[in-house]
Design a protein that fits this description.
The protein is mostly helical and about 140 residues long. It has 7 helices and no strands. The protein has helices at about 5-15, 15-30, 30-55, 60-65, 70-80, 80-100, 110-135. Helix 1 (about 5-15) packs parallel to helix 7, helix 3 (about 30-55) runs parallel beside helix 6 (about 80-100) and helix 6 runs antiparallel to helix 7. The longest helix is centred in the last third of the chain and has 27 residues, at about 110-135.
């Protein structure tokens, strides 16, 4: 397998916990599921931002990539719904910043499509989870 095949496979496999946690919360509405979703998402966002920060050769882009991830943990401690919406927006923002880097055009088109698809699915998972929390009993 090529480097991009491995990255693409790992990227899609990383969606499994998002999808399982949203589905499980839909069925069971347990506070531990929302906490697990939140902390998995924070971990993945930090990982994505960290890998892009390493690849960027611009100080400004480095800050644009990492800065949005900083308040996420504090938000998660105070308002889960707001943190979920903020995190979903962070995924979209980080992808938009990545598309402005010099390396984006050099990436394999399969990898680019994977990043766009995954970002879309992750955003929908965050929106769906926030909607479940808004209408459910678990806060």
């Amino acid at each position: 397998m090529s480097k991009y095949s491995n990255q693409t496979l790992l990227g899609y496999l990383g969606l499994i916990p998002f999808l399982l946690l949203v589905g499980a919360h839909f069925l069971f509405e347990h506070v531990l599921l929302s906490q697990a979703f939140m902390f998995y998402s924070i971990s993945i966002m930090s990982f994505v931002a960290g890998t892009l920060w390493r690849e960027s050769n611009s100080n400004k882009l480095n800050w644009l990539i990492v800065l949005p991830t900083i308040p996420t943990l504090a938000l998660a401690l105070f308002d889960t719904k707001l943190a979920l919406l903020y995190l979903g927006a962070c995924y979209v923002f980080v992808l938009a910043v990545q598309k402005r880097t010099e390396t984006w055009g050099k990436l394999n088109p399969d990898y680019q499509r994977m990043r766009e698809r995954i970002t879309g699915v992750v955003l929908v998972c965050h929106l769906f989870f926030a909607a479940q929390l808004h209408h459910g009993v678990v806060q």
